[in-house]
Structures are given as C-alpha cells and as structure tokens.
Protein: Large ribosomal subunit protein bL25
Organism: Haematospirillum jordaniae
Amino acid sequence: MVDVVTFKVEAREKAGKGAARAVRRQGLVPGVIYGDRQTPVLVQMDPRQLVSALHKSGFYSRQYDLEMPDGTKHRVLAHDVQFHVVTDAPQHIDFLRINRDTPVHADVTVEFVNHDKCPGLKQGGVLNIVRHSIPVIAKADDLPESFRVDLSDVALNASVHISDIAMPAGVRPSVTERDFTIASITAPSGLKSDVAAEAASGE
C-alpha cells in the first residue's frame, strides 16, 4: 500500500509575484497544483508541515493528498520548491497532479548504507556522491521513496553506476543512453601521495 501524506492547504485567489509576497507576509507558503490536463489551482499552506516533510527522505517521490477546507483532495507529487537565498525557508512550491495510470517523471533519493562494512572506506577512502537522487519514470504507485546503495562490497577507487541499482518493477531511469555514476570511493590526496611515494621508492 502506498504511503500518502496529507497536507492541509487553502485556495488563494491571485497569481503573480505581488500576490505571492502577500501570502508570505501572512506566514504562509504559496503554491500551485497543475498537471493531468486540469486547470491549475492556486494554494497556500503552513510552512511547518512543508519543512517537516522536506527533512524526510523521499520528499520528491512520496505522494501527497492536498486537502482543501471543504474536504476536497488533490493527489500530487512535489515537483519543485523555491527557497530563500539567505534563510533557506521555502518560498513557493509546485505540485504535480497525478493519477494511477499516468507515468510521471520524479527524482528518487539515493540512500547509502553499510558505511562501516565498506572496504574502500576502511582503507581511508572517501565517499564521493555524484548523484543524491536518480531521475526515473514510473506510474505514481510504483515509485519507491528511495534507492538503497549497499557499500559493503565497494572497494577503494571503485564506482557505483546506475546499472548497479535494482529497479523495482515498472520503474526505469529517465537517462538510458549511458551508465552514469552514482558514487565512488576515492582516495584522499594524502593517501594518494603515500601510495605514489611507495611506488617511487620501489622503482
């Protein structure tokens, strides 16, 4: 069963930068619901529920029900959040309206596990994360909240590629023309210098 989070939202009447600033002066976050060939709906919401969700893994692949005061609900994905350049507070959010049968594009968070068992890290390597999320295409109900990357067999100077990620049924990466890198275990500069010195002394 898909885990759906409910956000309480209210309709707002006016679009535009001035109207959005007025909403923020009230301590709320302006947003818009669009997609699924329906008329966009302007909304506003309490920032506390949004900030709480942003701090959890899988924010952009989790489904949300936006509940209006009259009980009407819109099933959505979070598509884009704009943040304040200084405070990082959310300033605006775009929601993508979804249904069960329509494939959607979403960024799924990557989680790295078993750091303590990773041979490359035990040798002094550093985890270099190239992609914190993977863009995929899937029906909304098939979207995983995250992909787990097991580091227990990743050696020093080895990389994890998209081909190493087990995709659930019905989910495929949106980039298919190359086997792109997700992360690598790289040697820090000090370790590289030591290795180079050892190699030179052996010549």
